[in-house]
Amino acid sequence: MTETLLDVEKVSKRFGGFVALNDITLRVGRGERLGLIGPNGSGKSTLVNCICGTLRNETGVVTFNGQRLDGLPAHRRTRLGLARSFQLPRPFHTMTLTENVQVPILYAAQSRGHQGPTALRAGANALLDMVGLAEKAGKRPADLTQIEMRKLELAKAMASDPQMLIADEVMAGLSHREVDEILALLMKLNEAGVTFIMIEHIMRAVLAFSQRLVVLVAGRKIADGLPQEVIRDDDVVAAYLGR
Amino acid sequence: MAANLRFTVGAVIVAALVLLAARLIDNQYAYFAGYVVLQYIVLATAWNILGGYTGYVNFGTAAFFAIGAYGTVVLHKTTSLPLPVMIAIGGVLSGFVGLGMGYLTLRLRGTFFSIATLAMAVVVQTLITNWDFVGGSRGAYVIRPQKSPILGGNYIEYLFLLMLVLSVIAVVVARAIQHSRLGLGFASIRDDEGAAETSGVPTLRLKLIATVLSGGFMGMAGAPLPYYVTYLDPASGFSLSYAVNTIAMPLIGGTSSWLGPVIGAVLLGTLQQVATVTISSALSLLIVGVLLVLFVVAAPRGIVGWFQR
Question: Which of the residues A21, A157, A174, B60 has an alpha carbon 20 to 30 A from that of B34?
């Protein structure tokens, strides 16, 4: 494996008596495409929230790009180059698409002034163009279709000029062709140097995209390896289909 | 930057015309009534920086306003500073209170934040009522000088002029924010605070900036009040009508831009002044209530929102 970009070390999170994450250890190399799967309620989104700073993990350490993230608020992590998209798109609904994308450009990308792996600082319209929304730049999110909303969510995440993008179910509810369209877009971004963690229920998409697959079940990591091997693993099959 | 400068020049010209009109009318009452309308332009604009831009509804206007006013009472008793300096001090005082309130309450969202601000107003009022130096519940008298120190005329003309200048400053600042990086950050907080944080927006810091600016302007609007009323007691300084009017005006005018509070304040403030003279002073709050209900039903985005799309 290449240099480690994200290092999650023994992270645990409880909600009251419920253990949502139990000693999760995970490494993602720079430029890697990692798939993260698991049944509903297995802790995938909780893990993302702990990595991105939306939730605080009780134990364990998250290190990104050599820097420990303990206690850093979410916006500081975004500025360090750790971006995410939300499971349900959360656009800024009173703003135009251009303004939507300008928020992370102004507050994350420009605040660092560092040259990210992607040459995307050309501005909001270049980003919208990349996801195919250039013609709707002056519209508001309410005028968008489902897939366009997902694309806007991706454009917003990319606008912070990230080194890593955590895509939380960006393809849920999309048609076969739309899934292919988003996949092609993500591959293009990966080629430009962005590291990916993809959380997805659409197995076809995860298998096509991921170089490595991690499986969470009930807050534990039960598998980590090559996708084709992981999905044949007995524990993984049992978690999804029962024994 | 050039656009801001052009707007400032425009606002100053409008203010000069307002002053000229007041001089032409040449009636003391016009200054008394105009002062109140201008004061509400400042208050409504200040409220909108927090309430309209970032979406945090503040019910505590009266507290910030009264802190400015009581600051002047203290300074009047202890110093002989000119009024503009007192206004600046009142603004700083209220700004600091805004910062403190922000730290304590900005982790609350929506209705909970609003309730906390209302509670803060009650706390401040209780403190002032029990502070003997500023008159306690008896109230404080401030003797108003006879003559205006500049431009001649009565002292009320001076107060009118100061409030005019203050409203120009408030509106220019509010408009500059709206079109700035800060304004975009405020709007992102209003739309979705979690998504804003994820986009790199330091939400807590921005919210604190908004409360400081908003509170500061409210304090400045309140600072000349003792000279205007000459007798200030907690019941009038903390009157609920300040809080109600200050929320109603931006809502009626439209909260998404700087223009909304100005339109709302001019419209509602003038209407109230006219009603006070022609019908009765008790009617003015009824007008606010009726208009507010009408607008919530017919034009929820206010007058400005009515004309956009």
Answer: B60
